[in-house]
Amino acid sequence: MTNRPETRGGEWAGSALPSQADVTVWQKGLHPGSLLPLIVFDLDGTLLDSYEMAMTNNARVIEAMGLPPAAHAVLESLNGPTVEEACAILGLPPERLGELEAAFSRIEAESVPAMAQTFPGVPEMLASLQSGATLCLLSNSLPAYLALACEATGIGKYFSERAGYAPGVSKAARIRQWLEARGLPRALVVGDRPTDITAGREAGAWTLAVTYGNGTADELALADALASTVAEAWRHCERFCEGI
Question: Is the terminal CB of the chain with fewer CB neighbours within 10 Å at N or C?
Answer without folding.
Answer: N
